[in-house]
Write a structure and sequence with these properties.
This is Retrotransposon gag domain-containing protein. The protein is built from 8 helices and no strands. The protein is an all-alpha fold. The protein folds into 2 domains: about 60 residues, no CATH class; about 80 residues, Non-ribosomal Peptide Synthetase Peptidyl Carrier Protein, Chain A (Orthogonal Bundle).
Length: about 170
């Protein structure tokens, strides 16, 4: 049987419903079975909410899904705005590799992110005192892919120097 994460009321309820429905569709179970299985993947606040429902008040999984998502709407994930990337800056002692990981993680939270916005935000977020922005300005890459390739080469060089330092 496919596994489904337990929901405690703190994650995105829509994502949880999607994961649950996908697993149930794979098993080709009925709507009634879905209603009976659903509480087995709830815990803490979510389980308490389910137990508070009036007996025989749910007639379909669709109805249960709507009630569940309405109740836990405040836990829903919110997609970020592209301008939020401008707040991501490389910290004083942060390596380029760590900054790149943080930046990439943030870009995954933005739908339809324009490559030029991504490029600009990444470059603006670099610590101006580091050598990498200077290197980029000497021969600017034409797009984000080329900028990331250059960053990865720079990271490899940094890591090589770090491991071979006396």
């Amino acid at each position: 049987m496919p596994q489904c994460d337990l929901y405690d009321g703190t994650g995105d309820p829509g994502e949880h419903i999607y994961q649950f429905e996908t697993n149930m569709l794979l098993l080709q179970v009925s709507d009634a079975v879905m209603c009976r299985v659903f509480p087995t993947i709830l815990r803490k606040a979510a389980h308490a909410w389910f137990k508070s429902l009036q007996p025989r008040s749910i007639y379909s999984f669709g109805q249960l899904s709507i009630l569940f998502q309405k109740h836990f709407v405040s836990s829903r994930s919110r997609r970020k705005n592209p301008t939020s990337l401008l707040n991501i800056v490389q910290e004083k002692n942060e390596s380029l590799a760590c900054f790149l990981r943080r930046f990439n993680a943030a870009t995954l939270e933005i739908n339809n992110l324009d490559e030029s916005v991504k490029y600009t935000a990444f470059f603006r977020g670099l610590r101006p005192t580091s050598k990498f922005p200077f290197s980029v300005n000497k021969s600017p890459p034409g797009n984000m892919k080329a900028l990331l390739e250059k960053a990865n080469k720079y990271i490899q060089a940094e890591e090589y120097l770090e491991t071979h330092r006396g």
